Amino acid sequence: MLQSPIDSPFGHSSTAMEVVEGIDLSGKTAMVTGASSGLGIETARALASAGARVMMPVRDRAKGEGVAQDIRASSGSDDVSVMDMDLSEPASVRSCAKSFLADGGPLHILINNAGIMACPLERTPKGWESQFATNHFGHYLLTTLLLPALERGGPSRVVNLSSTGHHIASVDFDDPHYVTRDYDKWNAYGQAKTANVLFSVGFNARYEGRGITANAVHPGGIMTGLQKDLTQEEMNALGWFDEQGNVREGFKTPAGGAATATWAATTPLLESRGGLYLEDCNVAAMADPDLPYHGVQLHAIDPEAAERLWVLSETMLAQVTDHA
């Protein structure tokens, strides 16, 4: 079965630095979106420590430069660079991809890490719901634009950050942007996280024969800036904190949360394997009703839904007239 756990030496408590121990990424180029905060920092740090050239597309250049300087100091690598990119703006994504492609070099690892969660209803200038536009479409656009570099880097890997949030909702292909249905921030987040998995399935089906694999990752529960739109009361109600105000047992540190994405990008165990949903540095099992929010839901790895998402994404792309 496709979604069958394997014999991995790593697990829930592993860190990104442990995952890359003994891995040599010298001569490899990696790109990590959202690397100026949270998991992105630790993912980029681990890849740089293993010898990779690391590119960091960020919205806030000043913040990104500070993080890059810290990563250079801690990793011993000077080959860590910041790029400008706002995933919610297609023109910005195009500009970033164009800049990277300009030197004709390869891209061996692309980790689509950036994202937003459970935010109030916001729309892009095209009228797209912001979570779907940022978490899915921005990365769809970036990844497809970078195809020439990924092919030059083959065998190369694409890693898309998803979440157990995908359990909340499938993609509503009739109304993905909440034009006719009422907006619910968690439903929108779940839809976007399902899209991250379906994109991995659809991309892998198209390009694994050209030396590029794609997998989706649930990083685990981690307290980062991702929760910025939630109140303390909301997080308490979700059971994320105990009565003393401590983060509940089971949450990971950012270094632990970065482990599965780093593992997906580097482990020999996934060589030529894609279209999978991963958690705790392993291939996740199928969801079990007796284990809420564990494993992967069938709606997220359905090939037909992945194809429908690809068609929807191409339709959205056709609406973007700014080819900057």
What does this structure look like?
This protein has 324 residues and is an alpha/beta fold. It has one domain: 3-Layer(aba) Sandwich (Rossmann fold). It has helices at 16-19, 38-49, 61-75, 90-101, 130-145, 147-152, 185-207, 232-237, 254-257, 259-266, 303-319, and strands at residues 29-32, 53-58, 80-84, 109-112, 156-161, 212-218, 277-279, 282-283. Helix 3 (61-75) links the parallel strand 2 and strand 3. The longest helix is centred in the middle third of the chain and has 23 residues, at 185-207. The radius of gyration is 18 Å and the shape is globular. The termini are far apart. The relative contact order is 0.17. The model has no long low-confidence stretch (mean pLDDT 91).
Task: List its salient traits.
single chain, 324 residues, alpha/beta, Rossmann fold, eight-stranded mixed β-sheet, 11 helices, 8 strands, globular
Low-confidence region ranges = none
Strand fraction equals 5-15%
Main pleated sheet: 8 strands, mixed
Mean pLDDT: 91
Rg from C-alpha positions?
18 Å
Give the structural class.
alpha/beta
Q: What is the string of helix and strand elements?
A: HEHEHEHEHHEHEHHHEEH
Number of strands: 8
Secondary structure topology:
Blueprint lengths: L15 H4 L9 E4 L5 H12 L3 E6 L2 H15 L4 E5 L5 H12 L7 E4 L17 H16 L1 H6 L3 E6 L23 H23 L4 E7 L13 H6 L16 H4 L1 H8 L10 E3 L2 E2 L19 H17 L5
Parallel strand pairs: 1-2, 1-4, 2-3, 4-5, 5-6, 6-7
Antiparallel strand pairs: 7-8
Helix pairs in contact: 2-3, 4-5, 5-7, 7-11
